[in-house]
Amino acid sequence: MDADRRTSRWLLLLAQLPSTPSSARVTLWRRLRAAGATTMVNSAWVLPEAPHHAEFLEQLRESILQQGGTVFILSTSVSSPEINDTLIGRFRADRGREYDEFAERCDALLDEIDKETRAGKHTFAEMEENEQDLEKLVRWLAKIQSRDFFPDERRQQSIAIMDRCRNAVEAFSQTVYAAEGVQEVADGPGREPPDRRG
């Protein structure tokens, strides 16, 4: 969704589940968070109005009713720019926390590659571990971006640090190939290491 601060149409989910089992509430919370929903107050969740969000909330509504809960889905408009900005701010704060954690994991990967390089640990095992970590980061960033309805500078910052990770993993991989006397492979990270049998 475009980062348009004039967005004023929202879908509101008001839900109440029985107190037991508590797993139903945790599952609901996880599914809403995974979809990028944010809370207004307890048990009141909001998403920008869009057909796929309406379909998602309708699926949740059926699940909540099957579990003996109470649920309402409201389509609402916000005429107050201050309230609208507050809602957008909550979405951005939620994504900001995710982008911050993502950046920490990227920094950890870069630090690990630097440590391995300084220690001369140019092995296929280390290369594979770095490539697997990179693939996890790629998938994670895609998930964050899929629910980043109001992107700000953190989105671009996350793309930049992701590029640094890709470049570092690629450079480390090329060093491993050189150390092992293997010709450069053009497919990039995620490839299978050469068969070293025989």
Compose a concise summary of this entry.
The chain is α+β, with helices and mostly antiparallel strands. The chain is built from five helices and four strands. A hairpin with a 2-residue loop joins strand 2 and strand 3 (44-48).
What fraction of the residues are assigned to beta strands by DSSP? 5-15%
Q: Which value, in Å, is the CA radius of gyration? A: 22 Å
The figure for the number of domains is 2
Reading the helices and strands in chain order gives EHEEHEHHH
Structural description of this entry:
- The protein is of the alpha+beta class.
- It has two domains: 71 residues, Alpha-Beta Plaits (2-Layer Sandwich); 90 residues.
- Helix content is 60%, strand content 13%.
- It contains five helices and four strands; from the N terminus they run βαββαβααα.
- It has a four-stranded antiparallel β-sheet with strand order 2-3-1-4, with helices on both faces.
- α3 packs antiparallel against α4 and α4 runs antiparallel to α5.
- The longest helix is centred in the middle third of the chain and has 38 residues.
- It is elongated.
- The N and C termini lie far apart (54 Å).
- 20% of the residues are buried.
